[in-house]
């Protein structure tokens, strides 16, 4: 990858450099995801991560968060439930609603994935200078904020 672009360079060049550099992050992320057992599709894994982040989420909201349709998410949840990773519950306050929660096995799988990702990133970060690590975190936070739909 080329050095950092000066401020006067076109955004297209910077975007290309970021896309190239992000490839290593995405590759490590995907490698960690492939190491979980049972093997899950990216949509199944996304669903588990969303349910972990939003315990008690319903099917409609999960479909919205995952960027897919409710019937597909319902079938997806059927498979995750059959695998023992997800559970549908009816809350006592609203018996018509169905909430999704991770089972202990589902939570264990997600936590193992996070630990694996953290190890892979730690290995790469250990080969960087402290100032480079600080710059990376600062840049990723700024990128995340700029890309957040709620921020704009």
From TrEMBL:
Domain HTH marR-type: 8-145
PROSITE patterns: HTH_MARR_1, HTH_MARR_2
UniProt KW Transcription keyword: yes
Top-level lineage group: Bacteria
Keywords for the protein's UniProt record, in alphabetical order: DNA-binding, Transcription, Transcription regulation
InterPro entries linked: HTH_MarR-typ, MarR/SlyA-like, Tscrpt_reg_MarR-type_CS, WH-like_DNA-bd_sf, WH_DNA-bd_sf
Transcription regulation among keywords: yes
Protein's recorded name: MarR family winged helix-turn-helix transcriptional regulator
């Amino acid at each position: 990858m080329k050095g950092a672009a000066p401020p006067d360079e076109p955004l297209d060049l910077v975007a290309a450099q970021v896309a190239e550099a992000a490839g290593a992050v995405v590759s490590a992320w995907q490698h960690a995801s492939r190491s979980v057992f049972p093997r899950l599709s990216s949509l199944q894994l996304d669903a588990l991560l969303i349910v972990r982040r939003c315990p008690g989420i319903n099917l409609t909201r999960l479909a919205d968060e995952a960027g897919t349709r409710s019937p597909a998410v319902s079938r997806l949840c059927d498979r995750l439930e059959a695998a023992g990773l997800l559970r549908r519950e009816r809350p006592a306050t609203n018996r018509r609603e169905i909430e999704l929660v991770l089972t202990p096995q589902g939570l264990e799988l997600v936590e193992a994935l996070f630990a694996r990702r953290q190890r892979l990133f730690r290995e790469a970060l250990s080969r960087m200078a402290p100032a480079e690590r600080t710059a990376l975190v600062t840049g990723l936070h700024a990128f995340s904020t700029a890309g957040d739909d709620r921020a704009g």
